[in-house]
Design brief:
single chain, about 90 residues, alpha/beta, 4 helices, about 50% helix, globular
Length: about 90
């Protein structure tokens, strides 16, 4: 169960985080249809020049999410593997 105020979705939350922290790049991981507004925000940011990646966390049963993601990983363990690989690569 997700609880949020009316008119506020994950896309709006992501916009607020980006405005507050002004990151150099954005990565958003999702696994259900409620994540698609945040995917749209990442796509919009990317179109305006900010690097961004959308990742589907093993939601093969929700093909709209997997089809919209830049990358599909094997569930939570796949997310951990991706973040670990990114951390190692960033440390060089």
């Amino acid at each position: 169960m997700e609880i949020r105020p009316p008119g506020f979705d994950k896309g709006a939350a992501l916009i607020a985080v980006v405005r507050e922290h002004d990151p150099n790049a954005v990565l958003f991981v999702g696994d259900d249809l409620d994540d698609l507004p945040a995917f749209a925000v990442v796509e919009s940011l990317r179109a305006r020049g900010r690097p961004g990646l959308t990742v589907c966390s093993g939601a093969v049963e929700v093909t709209q999410v997997a089809g919209r993601a830049d990358l599909v990983v094997d569930g939570p363990a796949g997310v951990v593997d991706l973040l670990t690989a990114l951390t190692v690569a960033a440390r060089g």
